[in-house]
Amino acid sequence: MNRSAVWHPFTQHALEPAMQSIARTGGAHLETADGRRILDAISSWWVVTHGHRHPAIVEAIRKTADSLDQIIFAGLTHEPAERLANALLGLAPSGLDWVFYSDSGSTSVEVALKMALGYFRNIGAPRSRIVAMEHSYHGDTIGTMSVGARGVFNAAYEPLLFEVDTIPFPAAGREQETLDRFEEVSRDRSTAALIVEPLVLGAGGMLMYPAWVLAELRKITEAYGTLLIADEVMTGWGRTGTLFACEQASVSPDILCTSKGLTGGAIPLAATLATDAIFQAHYSVDRKKTFFHSSSYTANPIACAAALANAEIWRDEPVTERIAALSARQAAGLRRFRDNPFFTDSRATGTIAALDLRTDSAGYLAEIGPKLRAFFLERGLLVRPLGNVLYLLPPYCITRNELDGLYDAIEEAGERFGSRP
Ligand code: PLP
Prior knowledge:
Elements: E1 22-26, E2 29-32, E3 37-40, H1 43-46, H2 55-65, H3 79-91, E4 98-102, H4 105-122, E5 129-133, H5 142-147, E6 165-167, H6 175-186, E7 191-196, E8 200-201, E9 207-208, H7 211-224, E10 227-231, E11 255-258, E12 270-274, H8 276-282, H9 301-316, H10 319-335, E13 343-349, E14 352-357, H11 368-378, E15 381-382, E16 389-392, H12 400-417
Parallel strand pairs: 3-15, 5-6, 5-7, 7-10, 10-11
Antiparallel strand pairs: 1-2, 2-3, 4-12, 8-9, 11-12, 13-14, 14-16
Helix pairs in contact: 2-9, 3-9, 4-8, 6-7, 10-12, 11-12
Bound molecules: pyridoxal-5'-phosphate (PLP).
Pyridoxal-5'-phosphate is lined by residues 104-106, 109, 137-139, 197, 202-203, 231, 233-234, 259.
């Protein structure tokens, strides 16, 4: 075979010259071209919820492709998009009334930011500041990098990023600092929106905070007329134990972003849900008030049908019970590490579990990351640490034995790579 011409994401090709080729997927597994099975402990970047190639989703894709492909979504509509919008509004926190489609988590957040600024401009009281949380990750486009934490992922593009106000991460015991800082930056009423990852900050290190903090942040947004954007791209579709993480705080945001698990991980799609007030601010005979955003593949019918099949799986299968069982197993798995000297912290929220390996150097670029990845891959396990942070974010169909095997391997990794206290 000639050399590969494919440039991979978040991949340093100089250090990863050879790449495994995956020929098949199914359930919690990937299978290489030469027949090796790999347990997908991270749901292939957090997208696969029920397991790879759930038959109902595969069937929906097949069936829809027989009658529909992409149609321009400005001025035209189709049944899968209409039905999916109603399904989403039925599942999402109450108070959200409109669904805007796009095709990735990043675009769903870009759309949210534009909606927020458009709202204030269109009601004649412009606000332009965005407040974001320390350590957040919202995507890799210029806007989403701007509202994300500054660091190694975006250092090269810093000159293009816009300024945001940052509130501290509400670490245990320091929650009030976060709330006080948010109140302080809200006072001059120039803040259009607070954007947060509810309960779990993903790529920033699987950092977790309690639901009451989100509820308190919500109260502050309400007090100052600031919009709340819940970026549920990672946390949505059961990851934190409830369908959306906001539910645990009884919070209904003004804007909610969803992608990843929206199609059960089969095909790209995203949606930004918004309140009627935000829609009405854009609803006018004045064409300048139009929401000027689109992407060519907006509301792809095949992707919408896959997402509808996903919603039906939630309705027809015991997904909630599966999530509860997996969450309990994750919590039990972590208990093994309470007194393990090679780990400095372990935490779980719903189906997401994370452990901090004791190492001399931390951070995304810590050399330990690729070493750990190779260690797990040799054992047929796909784990992709964030520096020294090991996390498990598996499909809900993972078995008890498979999860136990992962925790055994993590224990072994601790002994092999962890520093002694
Ligand atoms: N927001 C959050 C919270 C995410 O975790 C991610 C991706 O990991 C994104 C946005 C960006 O999504 P995508 O990679 O689909 O653009």
